[in-house]
Design brief:
globular; about 35% helix; alpha/beta; Rossmann fold
Length: about 325
């Protein structure tokens, strides 16, 4: 954001950040935004991050090439044990639709498998601008269908499935859940959204008050959205921007949404929870106080971010392992 202007957190209705979080916010604010350095430089910088937690070993990790809307992509499957019939979690990584690959969230997916015992499927969806909307959406839907159809082969239970994602990946997971829920037989059992990007209009109160002060910067987020969706005719399509959906299908999964206090995306997450609730979806949404956007991927330096991720994973796991409730 290249802006070192001090922030009056109290005037913004926010708590005063802890020293470490304040330092993280200052470092991000003083760095050039992705739109100013471009796609390739941003990808190179993302590949050398030092904020992620340590990568854990799993019992088994395999990689598979699958088909998606006439294209091919890879998925990486993590298993914590040889025990068959485990829940399946399909994970969509962060990266603003332009960054990320199987390595980007490998640490989180391995941790998720070890923490829950679930089979975790990490999706290497196609990136913009080379592959604009609906490529990433199509890939996440295809990966979920592949995981469900191959559940026995990967040690999973096709009736205990979840979608999960962070930031742009959270938006992709939300969009995929809407699409899959239109056919009740395809709907996942649970949806976990971590600081999701859900609204291309960026018109919520938190965008108005924080978008020029806290990351992700408004100019960067607008640029990333338009790298993924250059055609304005798509900007009201719920497959792109789930906030455009007036309601959710009856078979929509139970949902947990985490937002971050110091995050311009905060209010769109909470408003989406209200949309789901109006559709009688079992939804819980909460703001993780004292945390910035992308806190899950800061677990290597910010223990509170990883703790929030672990709590959410445990809640998802409890739901997936509970006795199923008949679908509407």
């Amino acid at each position: 954001m290249s802006d070192a202007t001090p922030i009056d957190f109290e005037q913004l209705g926010l708590s005063q950040p802890a020293p470490l979080v304040g330092a993280i916010l200052d470092a991000i604010r003083s760095a050039p935004t992705m739109n100013r350095v471009g796609v390739e430089a941003s990808r190179q910088a993302a590949s050398s991050r030092t904020t992620v937690p340590e990568r854990e070993e799993t019992w088994e990790t395999t990689q598979h090439r699958i088909d998606s809307a006439g294209a091919e992509l890879d998925v990486r499957v993590h298993r914590a044990s040889s025990e068959p019939g485990q829940p399946i979690v399909v994970y969509c990584h962060a990266g603003g639709w332009i960054l990320g690959d199987l390595e980007h969230s490998d640490h989180l997916c391995r941790r998720l498998a070890n923490q829950t015992g679930a089979v975790v499927v990490n999706v290497d969806y196609r990136l913009a601008p080379e592959a604009p909307f609906p490529a990433a959406f199509d890939d996440c839907v295809a990966a979920f269908r592949w995981a469900r159809d191959h559940a026995q082969d990967i040690g999973g239970d096709p009736d205990r499935t979840a979608l999960a994602g962070e930031s742009s990946g959270g938006g992709l997971a939300a969009a995929a859940a809407l699409e899959l829920s239109r056919n009740g037989d395809e709907a996942p059992r649970f949806l976990l959204l971590l600081e999701p990007a859900l609204d291309i209009s960026m018109s919520t109160p938190s965008w108005r008050s924080l978008g020029d002060l806290l990351p992700p910067a408004r100019e960067q987020m607008e640029w990333m959205w338009h790298q993924y969706a250059p055609d304005e005719a798509t900007h009201t399509d719920p497959r792109l921007t789930p906030a455009a959906a007036d309601s959710a299908p009856p078979a929509h999964p139970a949902t947990l949404i985490l937002a971050a206090e110091y995050d311009p995306l905060r209010d769109e997450a909470m408003q989406y929870a209200e949309t789901l609730a109006r559709s009688r979806v079992a939804v819980e949404a909460r703001i993780e106080q004292g945390l910035p956007h992308a806190f899950c991927n800061m677990g290597g330096i910010l223990a509170e971010g990883l703790q929030a991720f672990d709590r959410a994973a445990a809640e998802m796991n409890r739901h997936l392992r509970a006795e199923p409730v008949p679908r509407p």
